[in-house]
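Worked Example 4.2. Consider the chain below.
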Amino acid sequence: MSDAAQPTAAEVRAAAEAVKAALDRHLEAVERRSGEDDPAVYAAFNELAATAEAYDELLYDAYDEVTPFEIPGDDTLPAYAGPEEPSALSVLIRRDYAVAEPQRLLAQARRVADLDPDVDADLRAGASGGGKGSAGGGVHTALGVIFEEYEADEIASRHKEFGLVEGDSTLWVTAAEELPDPGEWLSAPFDQPDPQTVVCRFDASAVFDEDGDDEGAGDDDGDDGDDGDEDLDEDDIDGDDGIDDDLDVEDAEADVGAGTAGRAGGGPEKDAGRTPGR
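Applying the procedure from the previous section yields the following structure tokens:
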């Protein structure tokens, strides 16, 4: 940073005084709060975070020093301001996956295409390897086959069978006075909802599991040896046929059962990311 842009000592001192004043206001708001979601506490918290961050930046620019404060990201929900007696609700779910084993995914798609006569002809051609020259060939087509055949919750509970690895996921429940008109939001279904109408949210992320990773490392190593037996062996997915003749669709579907409950939002075992106070 150039000397011309460097903050003065007076500016740094003024920023420090602003932090002190924000601390006093935050404490006063906490002492007088009317409940867990008091908007005055939220406002004081946000002001304190903003002034502390500004001071930290000025301190670093002027003196190459930092504060011990960690400023949280602005990902907390504001106080609920939706209807007290909602007549409608929306459930918003996002789940991320990595395609870790493309051959396993392709083999599962071929299995579905071979055994389900209702699979779209173009998808069938791509999943069987005949559509590689088209836009629908390969992994892209396989994903279409899998997500057309199975419900999203079933895929979440059986993701390893499809060669997928879970990333972050979240579930939001928002309240409304009434249902939108049919087709009203279909052109833009994933617009950001109003945070003040969120009743609750549940997040699942590896960042919430960092403390338990070391304890569960032994279990993970043990599971790796069984992955090939879930539905497909490595030999099954290397060959042209892709599927073992012993593989039975009914057996695979019977495995779904208990695994699907609670998967929305990552399931109860991952609710470490639940928003406080909700």
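Residues 130-136, 221-230, 236-278 have pLDDT under 50 and may be disordered. The beta strands are 88-99, 164-176, 198-204. Compare this with Example 4.1 before moving on.
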